[in-house]
Amino acid sequence: MFRHLKKAAFGAAALLAATAVVSGAQAQSYPEKPVTLIIPYGAGGASDLAGRALAETARPYLGDQPVVVVNQPGNSGMTGARVVSESDADGYTLLLSRVGMALYPAVYADSPVGWDAYSFLGILEVTPMILAVNADSDIKSVDDLLTKIRENQGRMTYAASGPTAIDGFTVQALLSDAGLDPLSAATLIPYEGGGQLASAVLGGHVDFLAIASASLMPHIEAGKMRALMVYAPKRMPNLPDVPTAKELGYELAGQVSGWSGFYGPKNLPADVRAKWTEVLGKVAVDEQWLSLAEKRGAVSVIGEDEPNAYVESQFKLYNDMAKKFGYIQ
Amino acid sequence: MWTDLLYAFDAVATLPNFLAMAAGIWAGVIIGAIPGMTGTMAVTLALPFTFYMPPVTSILLLVALYKGSTYGGSISAILIKTPGTASAACTVLDGYPLAQQGKGGKALNMALVSSCIGDFISNISLFFLALPLALFALRVGPPEYFMLMAFSLTIVASISGKSLLLGIVSGCLGLLLATVGEDMYGSFRFAVSEDMKNGLGVVPVLIGLFALPELIRLVVFRPEDTSIAMKLGDNRLTLSEFRHSLKSILRGSVIGVILGAIPGIGPSTAAFFSYSEARRTSKTPEKFGEGELEGIAAAESANNGCCGATMIPLLALGIPGDVITGVMLGAFMIHGMTPGPMLFQNNLGDVYALFIGILFSSVFLFFAGKMTAGAFSKISRIPQHLLLPCILILCVFGIYSIGSSSFDVAVLLVMGVVGFGMMLLNIPAAPFLIAFIIGPMFEDNMRRSLAISRGDLGVFFQSWISWGFFLLTVLFVALTIRREWQKWRTKSRTTA
Amino acid sequence: MMPNRDFITGLIVSAFFALTLFVLIPVYVKVPSFIPGFAPPPNMWPRVIAVTGLFMGLVALILSIPAMRQQSSDHITGLGAYLHRHRVMIVRFAILSVGFIAFVYALPVLGFLVSSTLLLGFLFLMTGNYSNRVWVLVLTALFPFLLYTIFAQIAHTRFPAGKLFSAAGLTSLF
């Protein structure tokens, strides 16, 4: 306890000193105490596993300072995001961000945190989303599905976390690409969490869904669900026969996919940014990180995109979609 | 199969596995007993450690923590009227009155015995009935779920105490507060401030409503006897008491197993459900709520009966029913195992090893519970005017640490004041709580069903499961109205 | 006519649900346009609850009247006298409520540890029983500190340190 507080005090003092004495020596000293990584969603989900994998992998590269993972769920992830964006920019409070951090401000003008209220440290991984139906269904392809949607005039149902959640946008983007009304061509049935979403299709209560692959792969592998399309830049290694949305020529749907990023509060000191750029570079080729990512069904993309531009393009993408679908004027 | 089983037994009977289970259960019991620290927190904290353990050991550790914390909640529920976890809320109703009568030890023993029996029955059904129960659970769609929740809401009538009218008022308050925050379509209700967008947490509401009014009453009324601690007299559970409650324990276990297997229902609903059934079939229903051992037996057997059963949809279908099994799903995936039908094909040995390990956990639970309850029961000796303020501080710390949110602490304090007001106005707290827990499930599934059927009410009467629960609900409501009518008539006759 | 407890309960309950139904729901429950017409809107369920609650409150109000008529023949105390008789308790309750509110507002300023220590001391004072003074002092000083240590170290809770202290650089005092 005393040690802990002393360290905190020392950290605060060091920070004060840093304003006078410009880094140099400080580059080696960050981090001097455990770094807190806030995950804005509940434990056990895809973002949580990604955050914990990052925490475990990064530790040896941080001079053995642990990365403490804290789950702070609520308000579609914006609660945790707000905590980080409002915390001290000392590099000891960081955020594992998801696509929601760009999507939410794109849809809600009164979002508590803007899409750019952070320092972007990196984009970690892309997590594919899968469009799937129950294996007993007679729908065999995306075309079958769209035909059926047209025939039924709105009676087809799909499960999603909500109309403005990423797994609602997957379907709405597809409908929009097919020239249908994204809001009324099929009926959205809201469910909470990957488990409930999947069981709605497994139990035959709704007709289809398009959600994160991690929640669907077990059922697809067991032959209980059929994958029709993948929302990802390229085909998934364990589903080589399933086409991507881009291959099928769907313009908006081809750009939708899940991802995890790594953010800090705005105006992070240069030495902190430099340290993390160095650490993420090492994590990118770390065996443990790569194997954990593969087990989650994610593709590590550390260092492949310039984070600022990537997040901005994502914000624009969803902002345009929200306008097109009629969520905002 | 038998060679598989023998092989699995061999694999599970290792020192690290037993150590993990013993440590997990013990830690779980202690964490569960501390107000504001929940099983979810225990499991989340343990998750990083499991990265480095063999798969079976790591899952056993998480299961052990889960089971331990579910039982542990009953200790503080009985001794200090503060349910350590939401699932122990029902245990407060009879547990605390018993503790006040100096029968805290007896109540703790009853809770432990019924928890262990419920747990064991749950484990056995996980072993033998996993697949049929999982398939049943899948058939429970929004309309069936809605009917089940409608039936559960009638529990309000059983736990209303003296006045059904005020019980319903209390239930309405609970239903209303449960609607605060984001609704299923992502629009906000009663979100006056940014914090309220998240809604009100179950734990702060629960603890505020049960535990805090005791403190406020102590401060406001300053009763004479605050320095006198609770008597500790009658501690042993006699065989006849056990036999008297056995039927409720067995019924509670079965209720726990069935409700636990349906994703999303959870142990608190099961506990209230079982309690209501025990009260309804009891010859002395008026004793429930005043310190009836059978009430504890019913609640505790049902909430621990859920523990094993929540693993059923996880293992057999790969669907986590709650946050804790969600964390377990994560732990499986870290080890490259995907729960679901494929698990039984690819990792049958591990599955059997897991089942056998889980069976042993009931035994560990008994010993860990016995020792911890013994130590905790000394709390009753602390005078009230020292104990109650400390409990509040403990709750404040625990609740802050769950969500790192000062808003939760504010909710705790406000609910304490509301609870005190309800106490003054004779409005019972228990219906509020059950309505608060069940309300969202009831509403969401009603709206889901109507969205699927495009407004056609016929959707609620399409399967035998819906019909069954519908008829039960109607029957129960009719019986309650008849009872109230008779009560009113005898009352008006005596006054006239 | 002296209002009895059931009457007051009915009155408060009816007033609360009426307020919810006619003010809170129209103002604070928005109905977004994207929810399809056939699906129940977000304000439907709160309305059902509020109407039920209002009805129950009114029934409680009506049922309490016969009992009150009987009582009123032997009691001639008004509401003012009733409140006067219980004024000590009302004052205690008010002080306690103010203490709770002060605690919530003190959290970000004084920090978690200091605020909770003050709250514990305040509560011990308010119980009005000073028979275990040594214990009271020891508990006030050590109990929050102990909890702070446990939660910060084991559960990694990030407790607010308090603006007052971090601004003055006083964190090192602990």
Could you characterize the architecture of this molecule?
The complex is a heterotrimer of chains A (about 325), B (about 500) and C (about 170). Helices cover about 40% and strands about 20% of the residues of chain A. In chain A, the strands form two sheets. Chain A has a six-stranded mixed β-sheet with strand order 2-1-3-10-4-11, with helices on both faces. Chain A is α/β, with parallel strands linked by helices and about 325 residues long. Chain B has about 500 residues and is mostly helical. Chain B has one domain. The termini of chain B are far apart. Chain C is mainly α. In chain C, helix 4 runs antiparallel to helix 5. Chains in contact: A-B, A-C, B-C. At the B-C interface, helix 9, strand 2, helix 11, helix 18 and helix 19 of B face helix 1, helix 2, helix 4, helix 5 and helix 6 of C.
Please tell me the overall pLDDT of chain A: 86
Total strands of chain C: the figure is 0
Strand content of chain C: under 5%
The neighbouring-strand order within the major sheet of chain A is 2-1-3-10-4-11
Anisotropy-based shape of chain C? flat
What is the tally of helical segments of chain A?
12
Spans of at least 5 consecutive residues with low confidence of chain A: 1-27
CATH class of the largest domain in chain A: Alpha Beta
